[in-house]
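As the next step, I selected for study one protein, both as residues and as discrete backbone shape codes, as given directly below:
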Amino acid sequence: MPLLLPGDIVTDLPAPQKANATLKLGPGLTHSPPSTITAHKAGQLVVDTRKNALWIESNSRRYIPAPQDAVIATILRSSGDAYICSIPSSASPAPSSVQATLPHLAFPNATKKTRPLLHPGATVYARISLANKHMDPELECFDAETGKSAGFGELKGGMMFPVSLGLSRRLLGDGKKMLQIAKRAGENWEGGNGAEVLEELGQTIAFECAVGRNGMVWVDSGDVATTLMIMRCVQGSEGRTAEEVREMVRKELKKT
């Protein structure tokens, strides 16, 4: 996976597996007609030949809302028909957040009488249903396909802490995708699937966890000391190989 800097031109384009297949560009790349593809941020160029897609994998510091992203947000206040929320960006060099709206009825089977009553300061796990540069993002707390909560909703108790945006994506499954792409390309990927820390902890400890793509993680184990230990393990997994992460978790478990 080559490293690109802003302004670098992508030269080795993947050969499509199907005739007339459209090349899909993801974050970090810009197309200049007729056929020039340029990087506009630094990171590793990822080539997915199966989906005929390219994107830049980087650890950016500011979260930009995108549709279907799962995020952890904080309720600021309630307006006539929606809650006004704040989506923090964990790794931003200065405190920053994106304001979003969460409709009162954007919950499973919600009506005006049965909708959840959320107070300022409450934490919610939500999915971005609408996002563009001309208006505030809109959130919803249910799975659009099934209409069920699917883990979304108010997060009660527990503890919320920040991680890097890159780590949050790997915890949500992007690491497994990168591992599969590296294997198909015949490359060595020591980072594992990215979720080894949660898998290793889950074999010994019972806890609830929610990860937002905005770089926030919520954990509740029912015990303060255990929750703090989980936080140290998750934050400490940044930059380690899969085996190093497992060894670190085992050492932390022995201390408790």
